[in-house]
Amino acid sequence: MDDKNTMENLLLTEKNACDLYFHGSIESGTQNVNQAFTKALQDSLTLQSDLYKKMSEKGWYSAQQAPQQQMQQVKQKFSCSQQG
Fold first, then answer.
1. 84 class by beta-carbon count within 10 Å (0-12 exposed, 13-18 middle, 19+ buried)
2. What ranges do the domains of the chain cover?
3. Tens digit of pLDDT for each residue in 49-82?
4. CA distance 51 to 60
5. 11: closest CA among 60, 75, 63?
6. Burial annotation 17-39 (CB, 10 A radius, 16+ → b, else e)
7. Quick check: pTM over 0.70?
8. Chain center to CA of 17
């Protein structure tokens, strides 16, 4: 397995961990459990961000800029749904 595949697998694993920690934090029954999941989520989000940045620097993961018109349409859609 090459470095790119390894980084992709790590990033996917971190994204899945973030999902699990998020659900653990919002569904926890006690303050201590909530704090543990919330801390784990924060740490996992930081690691996920670091992985993304490193992959992006190497050209292995790139985000595309959405066209301005498309962003305006989505913004308008959600602002209308909040008013209604």
1. exposed
2. 3-83
3. 999 999 999 999 877 888 999 889 888 888 876 6
4. 11
5. 60
6. bbeebbebbeeeeeeeeeeebbe
7. yes
8. 10
